[in-house]
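Box 3.1. Reading complex inputs
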Amino acid sequence: MTPLRISIAATVASILLILVVLELIRSRRLRERYALLWLATGAVLLVLSAWRDALNTIAGWVGVTGYPPAVLFAVGILFILLVLLHYSTVISKLADQNVILAQRLALLENRVLEGEHEPGGPLAERPDLTLR
Amino acid sequence: MSELRRVAIVPAFQEEAVIASLVLEIKSFDPSLDIVVVDDGSTDRTAASAAAAGAAVVRLPYNLGIGGAVQTGFKYALERGYDIAVRLDGDGQHDPAELPKLLEPLARDDADVVVGSRFAGGDREYRPAFARRAGIRWFAGLVSLLTRQQLTDTTSGFQAVNARGIRLFAADYPHDYPEVEAAVMVVRHRLRILEVPVRMRERELGASSITTLRSLYYAIKVTLALLVGIFRRRVVPAEDA
């Protein structure tokens, strides 16, 4: 059986995680989309921490006989891996969008400069003034 | 009173088949209504087709999703000083013939945000599938509870807003299924929201982009956003009651 103090400490930590995530959403520093996985992590860890019989049972299933809290670590690490993997996909998407934005901006700048140098444009008489 | 400046915001993603006829249809029903099509990163000829039909076109560099696209429209309306903005989706499900029902309450200043509802007695033939109906019920109940006002169709994107609504939505607009959260936001900012019964059309082409598993994800996400949203600060000062 998991030592009681470990259960209590893990329960408190899980609740703290959930509260911090909720506060981050509230203050708009974290979007709901990216918070769901964190909330799931907190919820699963909370259940496994507080419901000691369940942790024991799962430890039995996966063959952890000596020290049930090891399952808590394993589950915690698994969820951290999930979050990291999710973030890798998010970063990839952001990088792709960043490229598209830069290209779009460059093409727009090109159009604006061409317009400025056209006859009647603000820089029509100053072909020397182009890109800085 | 001087003539109110009004604009129709039409978010569109891959709608080259229907966007031009929709733009022309809006024009024929209400020639004084300006139209801005927000092309949400389409790779087909949506933008060109809309422009050829005579709409102003704002082309997003990549797909932002419905919330980001619609908010772009509200920012356009705010920057250009429109008094009233009405949103019709680019797939043609919102019938321009129903526009007067949405615009009249704004003209009478009975509301700041008018939502066309399929359930407020307007369209008894509209029978969505079970999962969709369950979701619609869930959000109608939750939003009605949070706003202390009976709302029946919280996922309807057929909406018209006045200048106050434009200012609020330009400052903050939710992402997926934005209408649900927006309804609560509107009430929290002490704007008046009103449902009017409308009929909606079947989508002319293409399937709805939402699958069951994704719906469940969105349902959880939007519920979370609604519940956390109650504790958020206001993004623009609340209107005086």
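In summary: Chain B touches chain A through twelve residues (CB under 8 Å).
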